[in-house]
Design brief:
45% of the residues lie in helices and 0% in strands. By secondary structure, the chain is an all-alpha fold. The two termini are 24 Å apart. It has a domain of 138 residues: Glycosyltransferase, CATH 1.50.10. The structure holds zinc ion.
């Protein structure tokens, strides 16, 4: 273990690639104009999430205006249903995960007031869609009317409602108790009570507790030890024991460590070097591992991971 010492500001003594900022900006911009390509349509079920990932990456890269603002707003609003929820793309069923992305995008570009226009019903309508997905007995949240529960949905609900200033629409103490019931003996969390510990779920549970103001409930040393064991020899982080490293876990693991003040328990310089090797220096974008195909999901989480490590030239991200 060594201290995170602001990689990128270290003075060039380490041999590793530089961040190709403008290539990444161009890569994300191009995603918006590839409607003639098959991949664009194959990923339609993730379109609204994709806008959030791309836009967040652009903000962290210091190019917040690289996507057309009004078109972004128009697209987001075209995904909304009468019940206040959002689908992945126009005509897709409403779901918690797309509704969270819609709220995050609108707030990020200072356009949440657009929800108040016309007969949309305002932010309260969005809030009530989310609140209606809470199981008032257990405190858990469903993703949609079909009833699957998952700590991802619980975190998403608290995230979006806190951004809208509407946390009082749900039973926060019950949600907190549900998160606690997902904690395992290793200090980490699973997708539901008794489920295997997983870094992605650790992020959603710890971040939900952070939004609820209940980080005091986390067993920080035990969880910190489990999280820092996720760093492999190559410097990258994995999602659970015995799995290969992946650039997106730079965020899931790194932000969880940051929220419990244990980010310095991993080697930040080695992690930054691994993330930078995952970028495509020619076409831009990041992949899960060096040499693999890039995508907007890993581009976002790789850049967010570097930002968490205070990489020079990037805007600093809030881990919550
Ligand atoms: Zn991944």
């Amino acid at each position: 273990m060594s201290l995170v010492s602001g990689p990128g500001r270290a003075g060039g003594s380490l041999s590793r690639p530089d961040l190709c900022t403008l290539k990444h900006v161009a890569y994300i911009q191009k995603l918006d104009t590839r409607k003639d390509e098959l991949e664009y349509w194959l990923t339609e079920h993730l379109r609204l999430n994709g806008v959030y990932w791309g836009l967040t990456a652009l903000h962290l890269l210091g190019h917040p205006d690289a996507l057309p603002r009004q078109e972004t707003i128009d697209f987001v609003l075209s995904c909304q249903h009468d019940n206040g929820g959002f689908g992945a793309a126009p005509g897709h069923d409403p779901h918690m995960l797309y509704t969270v992305s819609a709220v995050q995008v609108l707030v990020m570009i200072d356009a949440a007031h657009e929800l108040e226009k016309g007969s949309r019903g305002g932010k309260e309508k969005v809030g009530s869609f989310i609140a209606n997905l809470q199981d008032r007995e257990t405190g858990a949240f469903m993703g949609d009317e079909w009833g699957e529960t998952d700590t991802r949905f619980l975190y998403g609900a608290l995230n979006a409602l806190s951004l809208l200033g509407l946390l009082d629409l749900v039973d926060v103490p019950k949600a907190v108790a549900y998160v606690q019931s997902c904690e395992n003996l290793d200090g980490a969390y699973g997708v539901r009570p008794g489920a295997e510990s997983h870094s992605g779920q650790v992020f959603t549970c710890v971040a939900a507790l952070a939004i609820a103001g209940r980080l005091d409930l986390v067993n920080k040393d035990r969880l910190g030890a489990w999280l820092c064991e996720r760093q492999v020899d190559q410097g990258g982080l994995n999602g659970r024991p015995e799995k290969v490293e992946d650039a997106c876990y730079s965020w899931w693991v790194g932000s969880s460590l940051a929220m419990i003040d244990r980010l310095h328990w991993i080697d930040g310089n080695k992690l930054a070097a691994f993330i930078l090797k995952c970028q495509d220096p020619e076409a831009g974008g990041f992949a899960d591992r060096p040499g693999n195909m890039v995508d907007v999901y890993h581009t976002h989480f790789a850049i967010a991971g570097l930002s968490l490590l205070k990489y020079a030239g990037l805007q600093e991200v809030d881990p919550i």
